[in-house]
Each structure stands twice: as structure tokens, then as C-alpha cells.
Write a structure and sequence with these properties.
This protein is α/β, with parallel strands linked by helices and 305 residues long. It folds into 2 domains: 2-216, Rossmann fold (3-Layer(aba) Sandwich); 222-276, 2-Layer Sandwich (Alpha-Beta Plaits), CATH 3.30.70. It has 12 helices and 13 strands. Helix 3 (90-100) crosses helix 4 and helix 4 (106-114) crosses helix 5. It binds adenosine-5'-triphosphate. Adenosine-5'-triphosphate binds at residues 11, 14, 16, 34, 36-42.
Length: 305
């Protein structure tokens, strides 16, 4: 479990993380979302003791990172997949990490196999594709068999197979009871990966809860209905005090479920050609919520960044 409590970090006049309180639970994949500059990387560095907070605290399985007796066995992280010594082979890189952290060399072979790099373990990292580098980063994070894992943008630059592999791995790690905390800008991917969400803007918490509840907040919810008997359906919906909009010959009804709408239409003699739930997307819910919190709105993006 990761527990941040009123966590605050300032750089000069910028408050990168501003009184942030959230929990990432064990046994769950928690997505960490926010616009550019929202403070995600800073938060991850604070969790890992790579930066010192100006206020508040963050605990990993109940203990501040710097007080962990055996940090690599408690928390593993992949913050930047491309920093590794490019002249070393993947295996040598992991052996060096294991040796400097008191982890038996045999564990290196286990994590190489876990991430599917055994056959290229002797190849120099310089020759690894981005996807192989991401796998090596995950292998390094898994060396100490930690209960808590942090991944900053693990699917960046990966092809669909690579993304699917990471998604399945993160699910499997959470199913083993681990805490998996992961940031990504790719919302459709996040929608398939995370069960819980922490959303921040300008360093502050704007949402914490389940993915399902977050997506349910979006205005784009309802039931889409098409009928050749629009007048009958319109009066039935109005009589039932349903809220609805009409466009392109279809109704989108909110506040009533499909069963109830089907029954109303039947009773009113309106034949239905379509009755389908319209579910919101993570992208829509996210855009609705973060519109206010975007540090640099799209119109000024090019000069600002
Ligand atoms: N070492 C630093 N010195 C000064 N300012 C910093 C430093 N690190 C981060 N910041 C500032 O803190 C704010 C939060 O940055 P951070 O990198 O944590 O955001 P982020 O959500 O990870 O952004 P992105 O999605 O673009 O990676 C930004 O305004 C950034 O410019």
C-alpha cells in the first residue's frame, strides 16, 4: 500500500505537489493521471525517497521509504527505462543491480524469464529495442520481489503487443496481492489496465476512487434509442419525466435503464430499432474533470512548453 498524506513539494516558487492525500491499495492496479506538469513524476520521486517533501508524508507499506530496511525487497520502480549502462548486457546489468543490493544471482534468471528476455540476456542493452528496454526496466523493478511497484509511463513508445504484455503483467502482479501504481498518458490503455485511479491537477488531488465510478461521472451516459414512432416515444418519455436529447433521428435518454425504456416504448406502441446503453469513456470523464486544471491550455501550448 502507498499512503500519501498532505504531501507537498515546492521548487522555488512552483508548488509541484500541493497537500496531496491518496491511497494506492494492495491487490489493485492504480492509475496515476494528470495533465503535463501536474506533479506525477515528483510524487513518484517522493514515494521513492529520491526527493524530500516540504510537508506531509508518504508511506510504503506503512514506512517512509528512507526507513525501509530492505528497500528493493519492498518497492520496485521503473521511472525512466532508458538510463541503463548501454555497454552492458541485460543479464550483466541485472547481476550488477542484484550484487549491489544483496540479492542472489539466481533471481536474475527468474526475472529475465518473467519478462521474456532470457534469449537476449547476453545482448548489449545498446542493441535493445525500446520494448526490450522497458522489459529490462520491469525486470530490474522485480529483482527484490517487492510488494509495491511503481511504473512511470511503462507503455510509452510500445507497439500494441508490447502494451498488451505490460497490461497482462500488471494485472498478474496485482492479482498476487501487490500494489501497482502506474502513470500513463495513454487513456484508452489506462482504461483497460487500472482498477483504481488517482487524478491530480496542479499538484492537487482531483479524484481518487475506482475506474468504474470515475467513468460513470461523465455526462456521456444514457441509453440510445431509435424508433420510427418518434412522436409516441417522445410523449411516453415526457410523461415518465425522463431526460432525453434527440439528434440524427435517435434519442439519448438519461435517468432510465434500458428495461424501463423498452417497456415504455412497448406500452406506447413504438417499435424499437435500437436500444443500446451509451457508456462514457475514461477519456471523456478525464477531459471533463481536468479541463480546469490544465496548466497550459491547448491554445497556448506551443509557446508555453
Ligand atoms: N527539479 C525540479 N526543479 C524545478 N521545478 C521542477 C522540478 N521537477 C519538477 N518541477 C516542476 O514541478 C511541476 C510538476 O512537474 P512533474 O514533472 O512532477 O509533473 P508531471 O505530472 O510528471 O508532468 P509530465 O506529465 O509532463 O511528466 C512542473 O511545473 C515542473 O516544471
Amino acid at each position: 500500500m502507498i499512503e500519501a498524506n498532505a504531501l507537498t513539494k515546492r521548487y522555488g516558487t512552483t508548488t509541484a505537489v500541493d497537500g496531496l492525500t491518496f491511497t494506492a491499495r494492495s491487490g489493485r492496479v492504480t492509475g496515476f493521471l494528470g495533465p503535463n506538469g501536474a506533479g506525477k513524476s515528483t510524487t513518484m520521486r517522493l514515494v521513492l525517497g529520491l526527493d524530500t517533501p516540504d510537508g506531509g508524508s508518504v508511506l510504503v507499506d506503512g514506512v517512509p521509504y528512507r526507513q525501509l530496511k530492505d528497500p528493493l525487497r519492498t518497492v520496485g520502480a521503473m521511472l525512466d527505462a532508458t538510463w541503463r549502462h548501454p555497454g552492458r548486457s541485460g543479464r550483466d546489468h541485472l547481476r550488477w543491480l542484484a550484487a549491489t543490493n544483496g540479492i542472489p544471482a539466481g533471481r536474475v534468471e527468474e526475472v529475465l524469464s518473467l519478462v521474456g528476455l532470457t534469449s537476449v540476456a547476453k545482448t548489449r542493452v545498446l542493441q535493445y529495442s525500446l520494448g526490450m528496454q522497458q522489459r529490462l526496466g520491469i525486470a530490474a523493478a522485480m529483482l527484490g520481489d517487492p510488494r509495491v511497484l511503481l511504473f512511470d509511463e511503462p507503455v510509452n513508445g510500445l507497439d500494441p503487443e508490447g502494451m498488451a504484455w505490460i497490461r497482462q503483467l500488471l494485472h498478474a502482479l496485482a492479482a498476487e496481492g501487490r500494489t501497482v501504481f502506474v502513470s500513463s498518458h495513454l487513456l484508452p490503455e489506462m482504461a483497460q489496465t487500472a482498477q483504481d485511479l488517482v487524478v491530480i491537477g496542479r499538484g492537487r488531488l482531483i479524484y481518487q476512487g475506482t475506474m468504474d465510478d470515475f467513468v460513470a461521472r461523465t455526462s456521456a451516459h444514457g441509453v440510445r434509442v431509435r424508433t420510427p414512432h418518434a412522436a409516441e416515444l417522445r410523449s411516453a418519455l415526457t410523461a415518465a419525466r425522463a431526460e432525453f436529447t434527440e439528434s440524427d433521428g435517435a434519442f439519448v435518454v438519461s435517468g432510465l435503464d434500458s428495461d424501463r425504456i423498452g417497456q415504455l416504448a412497448f406500452d406506447a406502441g413504438a417499435t424499437l430499432h435500437e436500444l443500446s446503453p451509451v457508456t462514457g469513456s475514461l477519456e471523456q470523464a478525464y477531459l471533463d474533470l481536468t479541463r480546469e486544471a490544465v496548466e497550459f491550455p491547448a491554445a497556448s501550448t506551443s509557446e508555453a512548453r
